[in-house]
# Entry
Amino acid sequence: MQLEIEREALKKEKDSASKDRLAKLGKEIESLKAETDEKKRHWNYEKDAIKTIRGLKEQIEAEKTLEAQPSAAAILKKSRRYATAPSLSCSAGLTKKTSA
# Structure
């Protein structure tokens, strides 16, 4: 910013030293802009990489959560086992009483 202000001031000058300084200043500004652009590209690349990694971590955590949850089939199997256990014991009790 400061260099651009200096460049605008030098544009108004007519002497050769000012014109030389203006040429050097123009090259310096362009060099700094190129460096800034490169750093921005690198920063965006890293930002996108971090975003991708976060997304993958979220997917992994979601998969772990799904694996930790019992499946519907497992729940149904357990519920059937617990539902039939009392009726079996009740039937066994009736059988013992009737056979005695």
